[in-house]
Amino acid sequence: MSEQKKITVCMYGAASETIDDLYIRQVYQLGRAIARRGWNLIYGGGAGGLMGAVARGVHDGGGEIIGVVPEWMDQREPIYESDTIIRTETMADRKQIMEDNADAFIIAPGGIGTFDEFFQTLTLKDLNRHEKPIVLYNIDGYYDELNDFVEQCCAKQFIRRSVIDMFCTRESAEDVLDVIEATVAAAV
């Protein structure tokens, strides 16, 4: 019997402490579910918002956490005590390390930084730089309008219809992880 691959998932999401607790609770449970499956988390290293929630969930579930943090970030926001902390000089280096070391990407609700990370990851997939799954974690319909916007861009021929097939949207943590597990297993 062959040994199953240990998946390393990258989660992008809000660092804000002012967001509704509904999102914090759901992403914490996502972290617990990642740990239950025996997977690793690689993420931006923050202790606040959804970044901190996923890290706490993985930690509380006994999982391994890799935080990737620009050197100057410590002065801006608290950093979560991850199992491994990788320091970078720039945000671009941070994203590159996460992209290179992840088997899949979860895009939790977030702001401009999360949108940047999602669209860069999607663009790289469109350019055949990776084949890793990208899943929008659509807590409380957060990404409904983004999905509508991408559909509108396709209808107006600014985005090829094939791009829509390069990511998916799921409502629950288990569904998000099931998509990743099936996609990564199929690629092995």
Question: What does this entry show, briefly?
Answer:
With 188 residues, the chain is of the alpha/beta class.
> Kindly, what is the distance between the CA atoms of the first and last residues, rounded to a whole number of angstroms?
15 Å
Q: Tally the helices: what do you get?
A: 6
Provide the gyration radius in Å. 16 Å
- Tell me the series of helices and strands, N- to C-terminal: EHEHEEHEHEHEH
- Uncertain segments are none
Major beta-sheet overview: 7 strands, parallel
> How are strands sequenced across the largest beta sheet?
4-3-2-1-5-6-7
Our estimate of the beta-strand percent is 15-25%
Helical fraction: 40-55%
What overall form do the CA principal axes indicate?
A: globular
Average pLDDT? 94
| Secondary structure category | alpha/beta
Q: How many beta-strand elements?
A: 7
Descriptive notes:
The protein has 188 residues and is an alpha/beta fold. The chain is built from six helices and seven strands. The chain has helices at residues 21-36, 49-60, 91-101, 112-126, 144-155, 173-187; strands at residues 8-12, 40-43, 64-70, 84-88, 104-107, 134-137, 168-170. A seven-stranded parallel beta sheet has the order 4-3-2-1-5-6-7, with helices on both faces. Helix 1 (21-36) runs parallel beside helix 2 (49-60). The chain is globular, with a radius of gyration of 16 Å. The model has no long low-confidence stretch (mean pLDDT 94).
